[in-house]
Structure formats: structure tokens, C-alpha cells
Amino acid sequence: RPRSHTVTTTSSSFTANLSASSSTLAYDREFLRTPPGLLMVTEIVLGLLVWTLIAGTEYFLYPAFGWVMFVAVFYWVLTVFFLIIYMTMTYTRIPQVPWTTVGLFFNGSAFILYLIAAIVDASSVTKELDSHNYNSWAASSFFAFVVTSCYAGNTYFSFISWRSRTLQ
After folding, report:
1. Over pLDDT 90: what percentage of the chain?
2. What confidence score (pLDDT) does residue 59 get?
3. How far apart, in whole angstroms, are the C-alpha atoms of residue 62 and residue 65?
4. Is 57 helix (H, G, I), strand (E, B) or coil?
5. Cα–Cα distance between 99 and 117 in angstroms, integer?
6. Which residues, 6 or more positions from 35, have their beta carbon under 8 angstroms from its beta carbon?
7. Which of 108, 112, 137, 165 is deepest in the core (most CB within 10 A)?
8. pLDDT by residue (tens digit) across 7-25?
9. What separation, in Å, do the N-terminal and C-terminal C-alpha atoms of the chain show?
10. Predicted confidence (pLDDT) per residue in 111-165, tens digit
11. Which residue has the higher pLDDT, 41 or 92?
12. 3-class DSSP assignment, residue 158
């Protein structure tokens, strides 16, 4: 006896919304004028400076600087990624993601790990004979603390945003 096969396909609202709204990308010019936007740009510029100053030395001989490099590069890449998300307003196209919570956890973790990395960086700086590494390591340590304070500021703004979102 022949069997009848029925195939039913459904389209989720996520794919319908994504395909309908992905034709044009928005650009938020005003984001860079906000305190979180300014802090993000500062984090990117000074974070790049932190890992560039370390990468120009023989950091691989010292495991502590490997940790600082990991934190600096990891959060630099993620901060660039989040800047693109905020600048293109992608967060409005994916409402299923709790962006205020994601931003709070991202900035909070960046603050904590960058603080640890800055302390490790500062405590690992040693003045060696015949070495040019001292100045680069000292400068990277200074800028790591500045980037840490930027992430602390963004954590504060993320918390305010998250708090106002959860009270609604």
C-alpha cells in the first residue's frame, strides 16, 4: 500500500524579521558622542596601545606578559565587535538577545580581567640591563590601568542601562 508523505515547513518570526530587516544597515552617528561611545573608542585606541607596546618586546619569555597580551587582545577584538554592533544598530535587529545584560557582563568582565592584567603587568615590570623592554612594559602598564578605568566607566553606564531596563 503506498504511503502518503506530508512535509510541513514553518518559518520562525526570527528568520522572517531578520530577512525583512537585513536589507539596509542603519548607522548611529550619535553613539560616538555618548559617554559609552567615547569610552569604547578610548578602550579601542588605548587597548591597542597596550598590546602593541608588549608585542614589540620579548614578552614570550615571561608568562605574565602572555596573560596581559591575552586579555588585551581578547577584549580589544570584542570591543571592536561591540562598537560595530552599536554603530550599525544591529542590536535593534536581534531583539531576542538581552543586550543590556550582555553589555553589563561584557564590561564587568573586561573591567575585572583588565584590572588583574594591569596589576600583573605593573608587578612584572623589571629594569633589566641592556634591555629596551623596561620602557615599553612600564608604558603598557600605565595604559592598562587607563583602559581599566574606561571599562569601569562603561560598566557603570551598562549597569545604569540594565537597571533602568529591569525596572520597567
Report:
1. 62
2. 84
3. 6
4. coil
5. 26
6. 153, 157
7. 137
8. 554 444 444 444 444 456 6
9. 60
10. 999 999 999 999 998 877 447 788 899 999 999 999 999 999 999 999 999 999 8
11. 41
12. helix
Specify the length of the chain in residues: 168
Q: What is the DSSP letter of 3?
A: P
Q: 99: which 3 cell numbers?
A: 543586550
Integer CA distances (angstroms), 71 to 23, 51, 118, 133, 141, in order? 35, 9, 10, 19, 13
Q: What's the DSSP call for residue 2? A: P
What percentage of the chain exceeds 70 in pLDDT? 82
What pLDDT score was predicted for residue 18? 44
Q: Compute CA 20 distance to the chain's CA centroid, rounded to the nearest angstrom.
A: 28
- Contacts of 143 by beta carbon, 8 Å cutoff, 6+ apart: 46, 49, 50, 53
For the record, the C-alpha cell of 82 comes out as 561591540
Q: How far apart are CA 107 and CA 148, in angstroms?
A: 10
